[in-house]
Amino acid sequence: MNKAKSDNRYFFWSASIIICAILSVFALIFSSCVSSDPKPAESSDLSEPADGTAQVDGENTDGTTPANTHSNAGTTATRLGETEDMGQEYIDKFVFLGDSTTYGLRAYNIVPASQVWTPKSGTLTLSLWEAATIDFTDNGTEISIKDAVAAKKPEYLLITLGVNGVSFMGEETFIQSYTGLVKAVQEANPDTKIILNSIYPVTSVYPESTGITNAKIEAANGWIESIAADCGVKYLDSASVLKDENGALTMSYCNDEKLHLNTDGFDKVTNYIRTHGWQ
């Protein structure tokens, strides 16, 4: 009797051990199958670029646009594409606002002085636009940009700014300052068609010690195009016709400073404006 009970107890525990082992094997197989499946697509929606700034659908999580989002883009709703030659009469409708790279239009008599807005010094730093006054040759005064727009009400305003700013301004301050300028112009005269022009490249021998490099300019041009998109204005990639095979300013288009355009360079730019018109 005692032996029978002992045999039954042994059989019960042996069966229990075998059943537990089988269940454990099935559990391991099931968990292995589950873990081999890919995770939900959240990892493909959120990428981490080399600089550590997360991006969602092409936009940084801090709300800014990556520098290279626009720099190599083709024609878009924001970027002016190729058109028929709009002619000199199209250029005559422009006012050109900018820094020393714009002042050359006046210095070389490419367009009349009344169409070129810079301070009397000949240059305008982006970060100082709000406090700056421009040489308003229409009446010989020096007035703010906003007042000049309100007074003249230009049909087209081409803004070329930022070459000095890239040497010391980060993306956030650059975008904030430039956006403020665009909105001030829009407030002064909502009918003015605003075109944000790309910053021109510098030559390959221009000293990097200045803080102005083509890599920084390329990044800033991406910011400028994103500003244009956000503000509902246009972007003009005129820099593209000035570059050599390495992306630097072609030597034959610049003066001895290796930064500013000569008449040949300005001819390339004005022709590009004419053949990439706002229609």
**Measured distance between first and last alpha carbons:** 106 Å
The helix-and-strand class reads alpha/beta
Radius of gyration: 31 Å
Helix content: 25-40%
Reading side by side through the largest sheet, how are the strands ordered? Answer: 5-4-8-9-10
Report the CATH superfamily of the largest domain. Answer: SGNH hydrolase
List keywords for this structure.
38% helix; five-stranded parallel β-sheet; alpha/beta; 12% strand; 8 helices; 279 residues; single chain; three-stranded antiparallel β-sheet
Give a quick rundown of the structure.
The protein folds into three domains: 2-37; 39-67, no CATH class; 73-274, SGNH hydrolase (Rossmann fold), CATH 3.40.50. The chain contains eight helices and ten strands.
Describe it.
This protein starts with a helix and ends in a 5-residue tail after the last helix. 32% of the residues are buried. Helix content is 38%, strand content 12%. The N terminus is likely disordered. By secondary structure, it is α/β, with parallel strands linked by helices. It folds into 3 domains: 36 residues; 29 residues, no CATH class; 202 residues, SGNH hydrolase (Rossmann fold, 3-Layer(aba) Sandwich).
Could you outline the blueprint of secondary structure elements for this entry?
Layout: H1 2-36, H2 42-45, E1 46-47, E2 55-56, E3 59-60, H3 88-91, E4 94-98, H4 100-107, E5 116-117, E6 133-136, E7 141-144, H5 145-152, E8 156-160, H6 171-188, E9 193-197, H7 214-231, E10 234-236, H8 263-274
Helix pairs in contact: 5-6, 6-7
